[in-house]
Amino acid sequence: MSTAVPTQVGEPAGRRAQRKRGGPTQTTDRTKAERKLALMLCAPAVIAMLLVTVYPILYAIVLSMQKVDLRFPEESGFVGLSNYGAVLSSPLWWQDLFNTSLVTVTSVAIELVLGMALALVMHRALFARGTIRTAVLIPYGIVTVVAAFAWFFAFDPSSGFVNNLPLIPDEKAWFGNRQDAFTVIILTEVWKTTPFMALLLLAGLATIDEGLYEAARVDGASAWQRFWRITVPLLKPALLVALLFRTLDAFRVFDSIFIMTRGSQDTESVSILGYNQLISRLNLGLGSAVSVLIFILVLLIAFVFVRFLGTAVPSQGDKK
Amino acid sequence: MQNRRPVAYLGWTLALGAVLFYALIPVLWLVSLSFKSPATVTDKKFIPSDTTFDNYTTLFEGGLDSPLLRPLINSLSIALIATVIAVTLASFTAYAIARLDFPGKTLILAGALAIAMFPPISVVGPLFDMWRALGLYDTWLGLIIPYLTFALPLAIYTLVAFFREIPWELEQAAQVDGATPWQAFRKVILPLATPGVFTAAILVFIFAWNDFLFAITLTSSDSARTVPAALAFFTGESQFTAPTGNIAAAAVLVTIPIIIFVLIFQRRIVAGLTAGAVKG
Predict the structure, then answer these.
(1) Residue-wise over B43-72: b if at least 16 C-beta within 10 A, else e?
(2) Where in chain A is the domain with CATH 1.10.3720.10?
(3) Is A97 near chain B, with CB under 8 Å?
């Protein structure tokens, strides 16, 4: 795709001449011109995407097999897979991977339930549909860092209102232990991203034929049965796409942990670990090994979704 | 049916109330904190007992050296430039995919999708190293490039979905009626394409405005640091005062435009977010 772009888009005069002649040559010529134009139009975006993702990930793989520590530049050199060995044999990596998976699974599960409820509420809206849509879009639009600060300040033992609520001990230190810190981190993630889930599910709900529900009702199906027998099966494609995107997104969790705990109390995620190695310790070799491992894990998650769960990834290319 | 209506309305009102409450509570808490003085910031009350604007004014004291002005300028400029470039490039690509027939269409869409799923942390290290070598570290361009790239898939998918809906025959019809190709494009196609382009622009802008990871890894000073990164490095006026009030005030300032944005463009945002994902 990054090959040299053809110089000319095709000459209209020549095309006109050929059209008169007719026959198969005309179509091939037009097809060629169209292909050239298409390549020229796509080239800038494709090149940009390759340059900022494919090239750096290859570079990361190269870095990950070297000892590159910007604090000790003279010690650089090829070390094979030993960086990976160092990462994979460190308890910290496994701890962080567990933390990341915990945040991902818990927040996506809660989002799915809440998002579904929200989507059904919006779908069956009797009035004020616009108001509710605006309300749920606010968390989506808010900067993640701001959302993290908002919830951090809400739970902060010295200034937050949460500890003033009934049933909650006044002096509870939410960020002083792992479990409570994770509760707040997951709450923040859920708050910020449930709208996205709800909107995707709402769009899926809109594609379901209302007549099916009518027919089921006539046949005496309860609301519960209608939900499980009609809504869920027909919503499955939209549901899986939403789950895939949210799972991958949640797996990158970084902003809220960085703001709330910076990874203390054993709340570090793999992204935080990568950041610490790369930017705080300037250990590009070890950090790149972490980066490549995260990349492989993301590939694996996407693969599982597409292959085993049958997620029909939106591919509009073959639609028409 | 008739006698069930009041119950349904009551239930709906409760649901609406619950959703509004849930969505707005942290925002309201930030607003409350931002008006509290250092003496009352720890009183844990929702309504500030004494209101002050000091938290806001100190953010801008000292002009360009103030805590928030430079980051605000950086954030706005970087997000706007990235948006314009990304939407332009994505329009070209989306036009080709929606209207032209060529091999590799599916490949481009699949590639874009792969990049939408790409973990940014995986390229942060190499970009950090490359940008330092190229002199892009701690510059606007150093952030614009990753933002526009990571936003391209979203923009392409949104625009392809919109462009597919445009009745392109109208262009030819206008030309048959005597319009020049340029007129046909400007008067017929452009008005039809604008909503899609605009939607894509909103989504890209929100993406760039929201980013934190690139902002803290590829900058080191206020010369390119954006608001989210600046917020994370805010310090109090002295080492004994927590900058809670200031952070809250800055957070409110960057949130208000987003809320206004969402209020005005909610239909488009929803259409754009769901354009690529549901039909398939």
Answers:
(1) bbeeebeeebebbbebbeeeeeebbbbbbb
(2) 84-318
(3) no
| CATH topology classification for A84-318 | MetI-like fold (1.10.3720)
Report yes or no: A312 at the B interface, CB cutoff 8 Å: yes
What confidence category does residue B11 fall into, taking pLDDT thresholds of 50, 70 and 90?
A: confident
The pTM of this model reads 0.84
- Alpha carbon distance B240, B231 (integer Å): 18
Count, residues in chain A: 320
For residue B54, is pLDDT > 50?
A: yes
From A48, A154, A284, residue closest to B29, measured CB to CB: A154
Residue to mutate among A127, A140, A316, with most B CBs inside 10 A, is A316
**With an 8 Å Cβ cutoff, are B29 and A237 in contact?**
no
Q: What is the DSSP letter of B38?
A: T
Yes or no, beta carbons of A312 and B280 under 8 Å apart? yes
CB-count exposure of residue A12 (10 Å: 0-12, 13-18, 19+): exposed
How many CB atoms lie under 10 A from the CB of residue A227?
15
Long-range CB contacts for residues B262-269, cutoff 8 Å, separation at least 24: B262/A134, B262/A137, B262/A138, B262/A140, B262/A141, B263/A134, B265/B198, B265/B199, B265/B202, B266/A130, B266/A133, B266/A134, B266/A137, B268/B195, B268/B198, B268/B199, B268/B202, B269/A137, B269/A140, B269/A141, B269/B199, B269/B202, B269/B203, B269/B206
**Angle B97-B100-B102 from CA coordinates, rounded to 5°:** 85
ipTM: 0.86
Distance CA B230, CA B221 (A): 9
Q: Which domains does chain B have, with CATH numbers?
A: 62-275 (1.10.3720.10)
Lowest-confidence region among A30-39, A168-177, A264-273? A168-177
Of B110, B148, B262, Cβ closest to residue A134: B262
A113 touches chain B (CB under 8 A): no
Q: Going by C-beta distance under 8 Å and a sequence separation of 6 or more, which residues neighbour residue A80?
A: A65
Q: In a 3-state reduction of DSSP, which class is residue B89?
A: helix
What average pLDDT does the structure give for chain A? 81
**Mapping DSSP to helix (H, G, I), strand (E, B) and coil, where does residue A77 land?**
strand
Q: Which residue reads 């910020």 in tokens? A: A192
Burial A266-304 (b: 16+ CB within 10 A, else e): bbbbbbbbbbbbbbeebbbbbbbbbbbbbbebbeebbee
